Amino acid sequence: MPHSHEYDVLIIGSGAAGLTVALNLPSHLRIAVISKADISSGATLWAQGGIAAVLDNEDSVENHIQDTLVSGGGLCHEDAVRFTVENARTSVEWLIDRGVSFTRDEHEQLHLTREGGHSHRRIIHAADATGQAVSLTLTDQAASRPNISLLSQRVAVDLITNRKLSLPGNRCVGAYVLNLTDNHVELFRARFTVIATGGASKAYRYTTNPDGASGDGIAMAWRAGCRVANMEFNQFHPTCLYHPHAKSFLISEAVRGEGGHLLLPDGHRFMDQFDRRAELAPRDIVARAIDHEMKRLGADHLLLDISHKPAGFVRRHFPTIHEKCLAYGIDITREPIPVVPAAHYTCGGVITDKRARTDISQLYVVGEAAFTGLHGANRMASNSLLECLVYGRAAAADITRRESDIPPVPAVPDWDESQVRDSDEDVVISHNWDELRHFMWDYVGIVRTTKRLQRAKHRVDLLAQEIAEFYSNYRVSNDLLELRNLVTVADLIICSALQRRESRGLHYTLDYPGQTSDPKDTVLVPTNYRTPLS
User: Fold this and answer.
1) Residues 461 and 453 sit within 8 Å (Cβ to Cβ)
2) Quick check: pTM over 0.70?
3) From the candidate CATH numbers 3.40.50.300, 1.20.58.100, 1.10.530.10, 3.40.50.2300, the one assigned to the domain spanning 426-512
């Protein structure tokens, strides 16, 4: 098997964002899409809710923009919000043209549901498994394109830039990638590189993301010299299934959108005490309310009840959730669902513009790994897949416009394994992994304090030293690479949280419960940052 490859475009990540880029590029470009596991794995596959877009005559683009700005807690970039919302309808129509089968009503019109933060029904969905429908359709489309190579079981190690090669300029020319099937690092040279690796929720003990989400793309871009922003805003989904044998199963926000009630253990509703929108309040408010009540009562979970709706309605709207819960002995047509909050979405990321460009030439970031300015201090429900589509298409359009002007990549040395050996102490990785996720959950979670953040910073610095030494002396593995990246993004999250001396959106600190009058993004600049060329 060759250990050196050359493509026009290397796309790291095979979710909705990465595949959208690939499918919108011209057929004469040679494209590689790499994935950690199967091509259809990743966060997109598990997305239940849907995609926000103005498709109803009673709704408007301005309504969607305003809802997003309100949910974002005063930190959304209005130009990014407008750009995204104005391109929503054409992006959804592109998906329909690709063959995604969205749910329709009895009149064969697209069925629209409503979720937290939205003033209108504007969520297009495929029952309660929208991500699966999108992922499988786009994967099939990409597999049919002869110019697209879908390469699974590959984990990106690091980006390759001119600076690393001691060449002039600030250009990305590919990446080193670990092939998990033979445990060798391969060289991928490319004129354009696109990061579409998702967020960093795996830094926390409890997460709704069973695959990936280890912040790989954010960490690689940071090490290469890209700025990141707003990493303190980690969205905790209010309702993850609480069951000893359930792993990371999310209960869609659409359950609340269709009338589900959040209940205390004694069966009483409580959300109206925290927000006039009750269960339809934005996620940050709902998650904090649940966290508050759990701590006040000493409860290990609360309840989400949709059983007051007709059984046929519940099964028709939520077939996946109904089937999954039933497998754990919970009949949601008759009884409430035990739920807890869990780390779900990274609102910050690598700073990009409207074309998904970063601080490094020919390097793009799309999807959850990117900071576009859309989400502000709190992502509104179902704007995430939308962002993947809109910015994925924008990145593809920019690459298409520029590709004839970009020269071939320079020579790049193969990965050197001559100075490392196989690890005989993988227990170190396991222990460090557990420690990281525990202190991130305890100290950098839904409610924070300065003292907790300082403790977390002390621990992450010690872990970073240990992992750097381990990385320098042993052959890389998937677990080691993920841990290395998680430590990097955990540090970025902690440093960002320490800088924000207010409570806003998803960042809530007991030491600064109020809000500043002039909120600003938290921008972190790496030591190897260079001002990008215009």
Assistant:
1) no
2) yes
3) 1.20.58.100
